[in-house]
Amino acid sequence: MHDQESWAAAESVAVATTNGETVLLDRRRGNYFVLNESGAVIWRLVRRPGGATISEIVAALDAEYDAPVERLRSDAVALLDRLRRDRLVSCRRVAA
Questions:
Q1: Please, are residues 67 and 22 in contact by the beta-carbon 8 Å criterion?
Q2: Using one digit for the tens of pLDDT, what is the confidence trace for 33-43?
Q3: To pair with 11 at 20 to 30 A between CA atoms, which of 25, 26, 52, 96?
């Protein structure tokens, strides 16, 4: 993943927060996904207009959590990869 990619949430995903967890519903397939607290931070960023780059996501996580930046980045990349495989997010190239 490169920072010239902007990640955006699919429009077919419904979101609810309950008991401190963020629950995603893929309305196309009826599948549910539960995100932890850091996953919810990532989801909020990819839902905003224009989505978010990896750098923006890592910066937001770094401001929120006391963890090495490399770990925050690898965890974010892993979640985005999973969400992309399940077609809950997409990425597009942005101008450098």
A1: no
A2: 999 999 999 99
A3: 96
